[in-house]
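Q&A log
Question type: sequence-to-structure
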Amino acid sequence: MMATLIVGMLCVHLLCFAVMFWLISTRLQGDKLGMSAFAVGNALLGLAYVLQLLGGPPGWNAASVLNHTLTLSVPLVYGVGGLRFFGRAAPLLRPLLAWALACTAAQALVQWLAGSVARYAMLSFVSALVFFAMSVAVVHAMRELAKDLRVEMALFALLIGGLGVLNAIKGVLVVRDGLQALDMGQRFQIGFYIYMSFLATVLAPSTIWLVLRRLTDALRDAAGRDPLTQLLNRRGLLAGLQGHFSSRAAAPARLLMLDLDHFKHINDAHGHQVGDRVLSHVAEVLRQTLRGGDLASRTGGEEFVVVCLDGDDEGAMRLAERLRSAIEQQAVRVPGTHEPLRCTATLGVSLAFDGVGGFDAALREADAALYRGKAAGRNRVERARTGWQNAPPRS
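Response status: OK
Response body:
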């Protein structure tokens, strides 16, 4: 009676969260974060336990075969959901159908060759292997895809591994005691269902929490980026600097200010859509040219700021020259015109600064150097001077 009550409550829990996951997926725009797959997985597992309650004692019947096919399909569905959560495209329907047919065929073959005890033992051992594989996959994801979720992923791996251990024990009991070991009143079976209920109680809300965390992280990241170029804005740039200088071993940084030459003329002659295309093109040049640790931002209009981390003065000047040359050489394709649009940029390089508090001063230094470059003919790189003074506004 107790086992039946536990399994019934587990069915309700799984099916309710299946509906909740599906509702969440319908509200997400674009990336569904695997929620539709998680909804399918919970629904399949809930239906499997419904069949277990309705199918009677263990044996060879359609309800038993379908129950085990659904149960063995659930890890595959959850695996697809996990891949989608981490931004990996993964098909669901065809692999699921192929796996379900294979599971059903394997059950029929083993039942025909060795009987029900062998079939139930096989299902338990296969389930154990699948869950151990899932646990290993979660550990791998923790190292490669979810470095910011180490604690959560370690907990998932531990809980899934525990499920693998229980299925292995169940397989041993079936081999030793036959189908009697699967009686719902057996102490082991009650413990197994309690663990499953605990697992469902922990994993389903944890999945929703991870989705909420991913969404809030995305919002925070969007708040720190320029919507047109997807480069950092001032807020994101300062946050990146804070992260860099929080390390005791952080080296001084240099700031590059880049301004496109005659950008107003581009807007006036070709329109703001072409102007936006040019800005996006320059942002792509920055992404292709900068070193891995450097920070790139668009601070407004046609003005970009790059912070060179862990370099020296000469390295910053070489980087500035590479940027200037790349922008000059890479033309922008403009729809409706035969000739690509070429533009140039002037850059100012600041002196070294060693903290977030020195950012504004470095910005003024680079701005003064940039102003001198504009006055000297544009399309050039100028280094800040010691003892600089504020320059008048640039045109």
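Response note: Confidence is low (pLDDT under 50) at residues 388-395.
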